[in-house]
């Protein structure tokens, strides 16, 4: 009998199966897909559907389809599917059997044993139900491990050094945070907290509401039940796009009718606006982190590493807020959708006595951070060469990221783009690897958005392009050997060279006409707000507001950005005082 033990992540939304082969974790694909949606259904000809086909039919025939069965595991209930009833174990068994089949087709041999992951908070009854589901599917569950433990294993198969890890798991419908302790090869979940009704679906819902309101206000269209499924899909796609792009245009043909005229949807959404919509949810996850840390008698500074699990952690705001909280970049080397399955496979290999090293799943990552320089705040001062990372070190390849920058002058005709490799907040302390000009911009007021895209492929080739958003005017370059390592000496030499070109203080350099921190945008918004409040202000306050606005406008027209900070602070203080 075959001795192979597979690792399975049996998830609420998606499931995966993996094995270790030649010291590498392999997530087994089914027709090119590594992820099997955790949907089960009965098709029109009474055939059993699992995964994508079941997910597709859910929209049309919810009564013939079951989703999110994991939420019912351990309950004494039956769910209905095409007029038959099933226990949660039976539905989970159908998913497991499908996964088993996928592995057997790949391995060309039968599979009888599995390690299955479960959430850290699962009760005995829920664990027992999972074991039973395995048995029904013809799998002996040789071990059940907690999902955060599996995530930790996927990052570090050899658990030697003592470490405290925070695993942040934000999926489609659930959020969990766990503190995991690693010592002498023992991986233990010491505290856990979460919300099983918080996840990417809530993010989608915010975008859906936004679209529905837009259609109602702009086109007088009340969304019909039959179009809501299309809007749901469009919202989810838009959300994913905003993880890599600063803007997305949501487009759907024929979304309804108004007085006999067909209405098409075309709505631009910026990442900034989207992040505002979901900020309350991210705040909630941070509160949960503090509860978990309290439970473990720890504070943020005791955490050695933050690991991301679950598709929704691809949302840049998640990493950004975690970085602020823990003062370290969360680790992203292992695909957040696959790391639990990878950890299950590593555990399975250990049980089977297969040697496995730490680097088993860490493949194809960039060892360097790439970014550009822009006007921004550095050590409390406005500085023209603040470093703005775009692709972060240890991201898995290939990847493509776009950020938005703004012109700082009215009718600015060109922008100069410099690309650096490194980590220092001062771009001049990093290595410049490329530069180019985008010329011929349209006549536009300051704040004309320029999209800068960096795309790094598996061969270390970096494609860089800058595009004027409103016209599509584009300039691009390719750097062939972006990942080739610089020797120490070369590195020092390169730094010197850059310093010479720019001068120690950056004086004499061409001003990089970008404003990543949106200081100008903020200044303009503040001025607008100040002007609005003039009406109801006393004559004394009015004079103060007018004077400060003048100082801000002077600083903007003199391009003296260092002088912006103080009057902006003054104006926000006055406005805050007036508002309260
Ligand atoms: P999981 O339950 O871990 O499979 O996560 C599924 C959730 O991750 C869904 O809500 C997806 O929409 C979301 N998701 C997947 N990819 C991305 C992405 N690139 N950006 C933001 N959310 C994503």
What does this structure look like?
By secondary structure, this protein is α+β, with helices and mostly antiparallel strands. It folds into four domains: 185 residues, Nucleotidyltransferase, domain 5 (2-Layer Sandwich); 173 residues, Nucleotidyltransferase, domain 5 (2-Layer Sandwich), CATH 3.30.420.40; 88 residues, Sandwich (Substrate Binding Domain Of DNAk, Chain A, domain 1), CATH 2.60.34.10; 64 residues. The protein contains 13 helices and 25 strands. The relative contact order is 0.09. The site of adenosine monophosphate (AMP) has 18 residues, from helix 5 and helix 6.
| Helical content (DSSP H or I, runs of 4+) | 25-40%
Estimate nothing, just give the exact number of structural domains. 4
Given helix and strand content, the structural type is alpha+beta
> What is the tally of helical segments?
13
* Residue fraction in strands: 25-35%
Gyration radius, rounded: 27 Å
Task: Estimate the mean pLDDT confidence.
Answer: 86
> Which ions and ligands are bound to the chains?
adenosine monophosphate
Report how far apart the termini are: 75 Å
| Weakly predicted, low-confidence segments | 359-363, 501-517
| CATH level-two architecture of the largest domain | 2-Layer Sandwich
Shape verdict: globular
Name of the top-level CATH class of the largest domain: Alpha Beta
How is the biggest beta sheet arranged? Answer: 6 strands, mixed
CATH fold name of the largest domain, please? Nucleotidyltransferase, domain 5
